[in-house]
């Protein structure tokens, strides 16, 4: 039995908060998203924050929003994706925003879109992936976009694709992962692409692979994680690769590992998260690693941890999000940390102070069982009974739960049939 935590009002808390890192004072409160925030990214000059998300269980807000971090005003709203946005990335020169997404429950919009951040116009639509796109990353010189994805419910397209951003042509297709690719990252010099993934429903390919982007050859395979790898990040000097992951369905390997990319040796193992790690990011000076995570099915460890990468000691623990933290990003000057969560908020976090959310919440009980589920729903006053079967659609129950007229006053309980 596990919990999904939702706000206790029909009004969602959709604000973005900007905090001064040194003083802890709130600088701005930004609104806009009507669905939860899955991915955020600062522009290279640090003036704009791009954010995207939506919901894979119903057609919601699949837009990307560009917001001025000084004034708090929305600069642009970029539409185009017909499914929810899973990943975004600025080009190194800041002129273009790449975005990808789709849906793992049906064949949807698996395209990558390149949009001009000044005009809001779509510059290109890159196809190729037959499953939904979970991760994208520009090469440091801005000429190539790497992308990866797949599907955790069946053996699908687990490839990584390198595409020329000017011509839209595919330059290379990198294979190797036997499970879906969840995260990719270019080395700072642009010669190597790191990738990680796996599957949270069974023990699969939890390795990290380093591949030469020119030859397509695998340079190294880094093992260590006993659960699937959710997030990776190169240190600014390119000598170390940080990685994190775990499993949201059981207590697994929630550690962060720092590995030497030349020798493949583990330099440090950072423990502290009691739930699985969804996102990590190095500070621009490379001295601190920020990490966040949690569980979307129950109220767990939704905190952000700041680590000293030399000593391995925790420098700070930041609270505030009511549900799992999906994405974190340092501002280019290192003074601000932005975080996005399943609670539909983006917070610009003070790194030395703690701040708790003041909103009230209720628990909605749920349980996920088997790979494909069918929900049979019946209402009985204050309870919602859900029986699970092996075929086939997770959508119905989530829509009924999330759109229930009086959900703010009720606790829904469910259990899995055997």
UniProtKB/TrEMBL annotation:
Alphabetized SMART domains for the sequence: WD40 (SM00320)
In terms of InterPro entries, this protein maps to:
WD40_rpt
Q: What is this protein called?
A: Uncharacterized protein
| PANTHER family the record matches | WD REPEAT DOMAIN 5B, WD40 REPEAT PROTEIN
GO CC terms in record: transferase complex
**Each WD repeat, start to end:** 30-55, 78-103, 126-151, 174-199, 222-247, 270-295, 318-347
Keyword Lipoprotein in annotation: no
Annotated keywords:
Repeat, WD repeat
């Amino acid at each position: 039995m596990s919990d999904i935590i939702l706000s206790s009002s029909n009004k969602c808390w959709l604000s973005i908060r900007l905090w001064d890192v040194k003083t802890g004072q709130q600088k701005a409160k930004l609104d806009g998203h009507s669905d939860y925030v899955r991915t955020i990214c600062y522009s290279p000059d640090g003036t704009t924050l791009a954010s995207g998300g939506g919901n894979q269980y119903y057609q919601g807000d699949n837009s990307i929003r560009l917001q001025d971090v000084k004034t708090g005003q929305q600069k642009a709203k970029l539409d185009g994706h017909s499914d929810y946005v899973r990943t975004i990335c600025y080009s190194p020169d800041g002129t273009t925003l790449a975005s990808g997404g789709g849906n793992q429950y049906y064949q949807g919009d698996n395209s990558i879109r390149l949009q001009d951040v000044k005009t809001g116009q779509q510059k290109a639509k890159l196809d190729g992936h037959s499953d939904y796109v979970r991760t994208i990353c520009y090469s440091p010189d801005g000429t190539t976009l790497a992308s990866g994805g797949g599907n955790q419910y069946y053996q699908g397209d687990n490839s990584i694709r390198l595409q020329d951003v000017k011509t839209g042509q595919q330059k290379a297709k990198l294979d190797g992962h036997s499970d879906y690719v969840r995260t990719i990252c270019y080395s700072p010099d642009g010669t190597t692409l790191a990738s990680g993934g796996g599957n949270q429903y069974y023990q699969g390919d939890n390795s990290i692979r380093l591949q030469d982007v020119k030859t397509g050859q695998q340079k190294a395979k880094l093992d260590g994680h006993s659960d699937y790898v959710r997030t990776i990040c190169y240190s600014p000097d390119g000598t170390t690769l940080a990685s994190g992951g775990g499993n949201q369905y059981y207590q697994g390997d929630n550690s962060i590992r720092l590995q030497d990319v030349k020798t493949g040796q583990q330099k440090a193992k950072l423990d502290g998260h009691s739930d699985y790690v969804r996102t990590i990011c190095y500070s621009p000076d490379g001295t601190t690693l920020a990490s966040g995570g949690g569980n979307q099915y129950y109220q767990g460890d939704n905190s952000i941890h700041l680590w000293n990468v030399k000593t391995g000691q925790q420098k700070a623990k930041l609270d505030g999000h009511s549900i799992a933290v999906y994405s974190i990003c340092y501002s280019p000057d290192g003074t601000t940390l932005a975080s996005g969560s399943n609670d539909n908020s983006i917070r610009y976090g003070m790194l030395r102070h703690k701040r708790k959310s003041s909103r009230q919440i209720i628990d909605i009980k749920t349980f996920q069982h088997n790979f494909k589920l069918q929900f049979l729903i019946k209402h009985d006053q204050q309870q919602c009974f859900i029986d699970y079967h092996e075929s086939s659609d997770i959508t119905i129950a989530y829509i009924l739960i999330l759109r229930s007229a009086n959900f703010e006053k009720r606790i829904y309980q469910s259990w899995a049939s055997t």
